[in-house]
Write a structure and sequence with these properties.
The protein has 26 helices and four strands. By secondary structure, it is mainly alpha-helical. It has a two-stranded antiparallel ribbon. Helix 4 crosses helix 13 (245-274), helix 16 runs antiparallel to helix 26 (550-582) and helix 22 packs antiparallel against helix 24. The longest helix has 37 residues, at 371-407.
Length: 586
């Protein structure tokens, strides 16, 4: 050992080795350059968000391509603020629903309803609240915009995390309990890592889904005053209003550049990192790669500076948060009767609150509306329901095979990932002019050919979830299927479809809810003075919103929530239970 000798050359060599492990290398310089640049951009954008509200009137939005980088920065900051809030919401609410049966009775139906409420419906009730908290500042309008984007992202992520927590393999759960891990430790050592691959892909989908509604979330109306926040969504709204195809092209180009940047700098490294959480019993062959992730792994000083954070995190993982023991626990029949009584009391409270809400809405609506209005909304809901079911079925037939093929090939997934994110983020508003021109020129029925616009932004939920399921499909099961020479339909029926089924249900459920939401902008489209309308619940709500008829808006949203809840309870929820009980990896 050189430490025990008097060899000065040995001491010098050891000292040089120690300095080499601490001193920054070229990778550190590149990493710090990226971090510093992102920090400066974030601080600059955050400072602009706190500017006085009068600045929007003195410097209105212009279609100058030189302003696009600034607008793209503002929109990107809103998207990431919303995705951060969605992650916090997911970890709290979805975990509570998965762990508590009584909380699940409220949370899951509430998520079913909330994902069907249009983004414009949330803005109607939240803009005044946020503007009142930050009077005279753009921050109030920014918070309202971020909340609107949050409502287009959170539900998908919550459903994904909930599904993963409910399908954790039983043998792994039994092993973790056998090692004496507390509920806190089981969550961070087993459940959250198991759910990580699916959550990562659904986070990417939610990020792209936020772009679909960014136009509505950046042009905010408060009474007779319209606040148009600087951003790509507002740029696109102005370009469509002015029928400026060149400006629309600039917005799409800027959006594509932003998506590629955050895919390379954030999501692709996260996908490569989350691959280690796949449920495997044999070594995987192909691993997703990321040049940013490889760069971070090769840094020296950056690892040294982040070491305290890792130490704090590992210390938190050792904390045992055990439930407090009861002084006199009930056993046997007494405990069963007490639990049943609490369940009935809880259900009664939920029913009472629900009936009170329904009664309040009916009382408000019945003052101005009649049964003919209710029948118009209900019949429109039936037509929109038929469209949603047919479109989800067609999208499933197309994207399930494609998603499986991509998910089983990490090298292909790396190339397809940014393309899929861009297609999912592509605003349907851009295609409205082409749809209007084509329908008017051919004379076909808008009731049929406006329908595909509903699924343009939501079909990607199916693709992303199927890719996540196929990516998480264990290598040992693939090898077993190969050994037993499972081919063609047998391989689909016995191997891959059961493996991806829980992920598919999550994707189809969120795609269904998103299609109901998108019907409001897809069943009524316009370009210039030409306006096309398809009969359905979406057009009913859109017309009522445009006319400021709040009783009809509330009636339409109530009918939509009813249809979505019934569809989820009769179709998607039984499939969830089937996947949880019969198709778990055990």
């Amino acid at each position: 050992m050189v430490f025990l000798s008097n060899d000065r050359r040995g001491h010098a060599a050891v000292a040089e080795l120690a300095r080499a492990r601490i001193l920054p290398n070229g990778y550190d310089l590149v990493a710090f350059a990226f971090v510093a640049s992102l920090a400066v951009l974030a601080l600059h954008g955050a400072a602009e968000m706190r500017a006085p509200l009068e600045g929007l009137a003195s410097a209105p939005l212009t279609l100058d391509p030189a302003r696009l980088p600034q607008y793209a920065l503002r929109t990107t900051l809103r998207m990431f603020a919303a995705i951060a809030a969605s992650l916090i919401f997911t970890f709290v609410i979805a975990t509570l629903a998965a762990k508590s049966r009584r909380a699940e009775m409220i949370i899951i139906p509430a998520l079913d309803i909330l994902q069907s409420v249009p983004v414009l419906g949330f803005l109607t009730f939240t803009v005044t609240f946020f503007m009142g908290i930050f009077p005279g500042s753009q921050l109030g309008a920014e918070c309202a915009s971020v909340f609107a984007i949050f409502t287009s992202q959170a539900w998908n992520m919550a459903f994904s995390f909930y599904q993963s927590l409910r399908t954790v393999p039983r043998d792994l759960d039994e092993v973790s309990r056998g090692f004496g891990l507390s509920a806190w430790q089981r969550f961070w050592r087993l459940e959250a890592p198991f759910a990580a691959p699916g959550l990562v892909w659904n986070t990417m989908m939610s990020m792209s889904g936020g772009w679909f509604f960014v136009v509505a979330s950046e042009a905010i109306t408060v009474g007779n005053t319209t606040v148009q926040l600087p951003g790509l969504g507002s740029w696109l709204a102005v370009a469509i209003d002015k029928q400026d195809f060149a400006a629309v092209g600039w917005a799409v180009l800027a959006m594509g550049i932003v998506i590629v940047l955050y895919d390379q700098l954030l999501f692709r490294p996260i996908v490569a990192w989350a691959d280690k959480f796949r449920f495997e019993q044999t070594a995987g062959q192909d691993k997703p790669r990321s040049w940013v992730y490889s760069l971070i792994q090769r840094t020296r000083l950056l690892k040294l500076l982040t070491r305290p954070i890792g130490w704090i995190w590992r210390s938190l993982m050792l904390v045992r948060l055990s439930a407090t023991s009861q002084a006199a626990p009930l056993v046997g029949r007494d405990r069963s009767m007490t639990t049943r009584a609490l369940d009935y009391a809880w259900l009664g409270l939920i029913a009472a609150v629900g009936l009170w809400g329904i009664w309040t809405a009916l009382s408000f609506v019945s003052q101005t509306l009649t049964w003919s209005d209710a029948w118009e909304a209900f019949s429109g809901g039936l037509v929109t329901l038929l469209r949603v079911i047919l479109l989800i079925a067609v999208a499933s037939l197309i994207w399930v095979p494609v998603g499986v093929w991509i998910g089983l090939r990490p090298a292909v997934a790396e190339r397809v990932q940014p393309v899929a994110q861009f297609l999912a983020a592509f605003p349907a508003n851009v295609l409205f002019p082409f749809a209007v021109v084509a329908i008017v020129a051919t004379g076909v029925s808008p009731n049929v050919w406006l329908s595909p616009l509903m699924v343009l932004g939501t079909q990607w939920y199916i693709l992303f979830n199927v890719i996540a399921g196929a990516s998480a499909f264990p290598t040992d099961l693939r090898e077993a299927a190969s050994v037993y020479q499972l081919r063609s339909w047998t391989w689909w029926r016995r191997a891959i479809l059961p493996g991806i089924f829980p992920y598919y249900v999550t994707g189809a459920l969120t795609a269904s809810g998103g299609s109901w939401n998108a019907s409001i902008v897809a069943e009524v489209v316009s370009w210039g003075h030409t306006k096309l309308e398809a009969f359905g619940l979406g057009s009913y709500i859109a017309k009522a919103t445009e006319a400021g008829d709040y009783p009809r808006v509330i009636l339409g949203i109530g009918v939509m929530s009813l249809f979505v809840t019934l569809l989820n309870r009769t179709l998607w929820r039984p499939l969830y239970v089937f996947a949880e009980r019969r198709l778990r990896l055990n």
